[in-house]
Amino acid sequence: MGPLHKMPDRDIRLDACRGIALWFVFINHIPGNICSWLTLSHYGFSDTTEVFMFVSGLTCTMAYGHVFRSAGTWATICHTVRRIWEIYSAFLLLTLFLVVAVHWMDADLADEANVAIVLQKPGEALSRAAILQYRPVNTDVLPTFVLFHLLFAPWLLLLLRWPNAALAASALLYGLVQTYGWNFRGWPTNDWYFNPFAWQFLVTIGGWWAVVGHGRLAPFVMSRPAIMLSAAYLIWSLAVTMSWINPALELVVPQFLKALVYPIDKSDLDPLRLLHFLALAVCVANLAPAHWSVMRSRMLLGAVRCGENSLEIYCVGVLLSLAAYLVLRTISDGMLAQVIVSGTGIALLTVFATLLTGFAGLAAPRIRLL
Fold it and tell me: Sign of the CA dihedral 40, 44, 49, 52?
């Protein structure tokens, strides 16, 4: 296969899935939120992180692949460098905003937001943040994406020329991480929460699917055996996760199975989490076809807009989740209050994403004043 693989056109399902994932991330970032039962995290081994990583790998490969085919290698490198700067700047600004927000809203949140170290050692903490070693709460995914984009141009070239070799190399690295636990060190303690050596595999799977996978595996993904196997795995995963909160169900899970399955590690993308996401993806692909009219309805338009502005919505969502938690702590943490706060946050994210999309259309072509 040459470098000019025919890749699929942009699929509105990708933005819709990414937008819904961002809503779920916001909900899950509010501690003790009853609305988290509406998200994926309680019903299986994987959660919205897997959705976000896979869709990002797929959409980035499609976008940068078109740039590579039309403008060449250097243009692709320039696009990835610009995106690195955008994500890196967003991470640093979000870190500063979290520190300022905690300082002004409630200093008691400093430990929970993991910004107490900044208030104690501002110089060292901000220096560590600049080299991606220090990360406040809920910002861990951004440094991982900075690293992914840093390596994206050479990775994309390999993927376009030798897609199967790229997938095999990625799988080998993933397997070595599961065996030896390779990771980057964080500061002041612990490793990177989203281990780049492990999560790169899911990003690569998304990219491989965009390049050749959709043509080769689509018949299998849509086949009855694939659907039945995926559904069976999802049901088994649901039963196991329900046993974590129901003592009666926990007694039913055999001891040998617990020893075999646990722990299901998120940081290193446990194989059971990976399989759960792939099974979920198979079912979604069959239940929501590409030209499904619901995807273009008003009901999902807000999710599509959020998916189109994923970086900005993620950052704003982190700040909103902190504000929501403070509201619940100071006013009321009842079930109704949690529902109202969660719904208001999603509405604000949707309005903000819609405004961003509108501004982007009005601002093109951009006028540079400096």
Answer: negative
**Structurally, how many domains does the chain consist of?**
1
CA distance 319 to 207: 30
pLDDT at residue number 8: 59
Residue 366 maps to a domain: no
For residue 213, give the DSSP letter. I
Residue 38 CB-half CA count within 13 A: 14
Classify residue 138: in a domain, yes or no.
Answer: yes
Residues of the chain with pLDDT under 50: 1-4, 368-370
Return d(Cα 56, Cα 17) in angstroms, integer: 11
pLDDT at 339: 97
Q: What is the pLDDT of residue 370?
A: 46
Distance CA 258, CA 309 (A): 40
Q: What gap in Å lies between CA 95 and CA 112, rounded to an integer?
A: 14
Residue 93 within any structural domain of the chain: yes
Q: What is the DSSP string of 228-289?
A: HHHHHHHHHHHHHHHHTT-HHHHHHS-HHHHHHH----TTTT-HHHHHHHHHHHHHHHHHS-
Instruction: Encode pLDDT of 307-341 as tens digits.
Output: 999 999 999 999 999 999 999 999 988 999 999 99
> If you compute the radius of gyration of the chain from its CA atoms, what whole number of angstroms results?
21
The pLDDT, as a whole number, for residue 113 is 92
Tokens of 15: 């933005």
Containing domain of residue 56, as a range? 12-352
Number of helices (H) and strands (E), helices first, in the chain? 17, 0
DSSP line for 118-135: HHHSHHHHHHHHHTT---
Residue 318 lies in a domain: yes
**Which pLDDT value is given to residue 189?**
87
Distances (CA, A) of 43 to 237, 242, 287, 357: 7, 7, 18, 33
